[in-house]
């Protein structure tokens, strides 16, 4: 082992540890790692910046725009509602739901698909007396199944495709991955509608948990006649920063104001709604001129009326809120919404709401005005799961143009008339020329942090390859699996990729494993394409944890799931995917 290999192994090892410990955002960790490798002289500047001009990475950015334009329409909602059917046969409805979701995820970004369908499925289940926990994990898994069917199913597929092009290979065709993805997905649907359905828990949702325990955290008070608080602002009255309590709504003569601004002036007979720990009720009782109503039967539904709306939001894996309390993030000021309650691990968080450190997957119950949904609908900070009653639907002509553009893009790339990158460029150009998407919405659809992860990971992958580190690791893996031959090496590549996907981002896992898999294929004398197919499938097929894939995280809180639910249902599915992938790859590419 050379000194250079030792340096790369140490730097990459520290990077993996930082990603596992969540020391910072993934894009920051990978960017810093790339900079360190550059400064240590492991790679030249041109090599370090190679990822920022990689065709796969640029194609991902363009596809964010195309998918965003298509998802502006409301047609997808009706598709899933029709697919679910009457609900008389629950397993039949489950299968009917999973197929169209997988089909859509093969061509569109699966994160917004799951965000869009989660409230629809919860409402459908509630109307039929079915526990949504029986349908929401299958929703997430169906989106993952679909992502393994096509070149554009996930950004990971495109990243590997871009790497293959840089190695002088042809890259993946549009439906090449379906050779493995389709049979694996069909087995996955069969598993989820039989064994998986029985393992899935029958639990209440976050909405039900919030409603059932509302008496424990909601209270109301009135500003008395002649109260010294009358004429004072909320800030001046000392109601802005109370220990353990938040003022979330002000009701005056039937008119509701939420969230409550610190500059709002109080009047006699104002009704004030608070949320927080009842152990600190004495703080409210000690405020002169404020009459606390105890023993009232205040319900969540009473909070929303007129311009005040209850919404649910899941803290995303990329959120700046993660690791910070509501006070530290100045939530009410930044987002102009009040947090009524927090749901985590199947139950409401009972500690002081302002001092609760938020985690990815936490479900926040928000009270906000009617414009909140449209202001924050495409934020990376959280996933909004409340069903839009008056959606911001684009003109039907624009929606049709977006859909036709997507179909033409897929056709041009699939037939080989244009490369995937060229087809995506043409699609985006068409959307702009026809005014089907605005520049403002384009900025909202492009996930810059994802692109930074991809570009940085590609540079780190180059360092692994050029320094000889990839060949060094590959030789040891070949040695370990020598008794089983190429199947052993392929299994090791799949397993390592799957393991890294569960603890770091899927794109980073795929890029780190690419040069190692390439070196293994060279040492064994096999076509590396089969190994790259295995990496693409393994990087997406993340079922065993809620944190391994973003769609799993989205349904975590709303479904009332525990971490162990994913382990019980997901590990057998991970094993099934490994067996199917290794078997087909060995037969088609390595036989």
UniProtKB/TrEMBL annotation:
It is found in: Membrane. GO terms for biological process: potassium ion transport. GO terms for cellular component: plasma membrane. Residues 205-290, 298-382 form the RCK C-terminal domain. The keyword NADP does not apply. Keywords: Membrane, Repeat, Transmembrane, Transmembrane helix, Transport. The keyword Cell membrane does not apply. One of its GO terms (molecular function) is monoatomic cation transmembrane transporter activity. The chain crosses the membrane at residues 6-21, 28-46, 58-80, 101-121, 141-165, 177-200, 400-433, 445-464, 476-496, 508-525, 531-549, 569-589. Its main location: membrane. It is a multi-pass membrane protein. This is SLC13 family permease. It comes from Alkalicoccus saliphilus.
